[in-house]
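Incident review: delayed structure delivery

Summary: a single-chain prediction request sat in the queue longer than the usual turnaround. Root cause was a stuck worker, restarted by the on-call engineer. No data loss occurred. The affected request and its eventual output are reproduced below so the record is complete for anyone auditing the incident later.

Affected input:
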Amino acid sequence: MATVIKGGPIVWNTVQDRIPPGGYKSVYVVGPSLKDAAITVTAHGLPGIVDQRLAVVQTATRTEPNPNAPSVDILIQNTGPNECPYTRVDVGSIRA
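Output delivered after worker restart:
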């Protein structure tokens, strides 16, 4: 039976975390639940404030420098017409 672990939400909402229209933000998440698992990542703007469309355009897992604390690198793009002042990321892992 598969085991599903949901991580998050992880929120970035400071001034330096803002993503301009068409811009990108690179983040990473560390966690032992990411080891030897299938990873899912979703990104969301703050609903109801402005038109914010975020896309996860790339993910990459790594086990260096600590193989017991793997991480996932996440590249998020703001595909909407407005600056995104708030980014929420959910990371899930599925292990057979």
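Verification: The chain has one domain: 3-95.
Action items: add queue-age alerting; document worker restart procedure.
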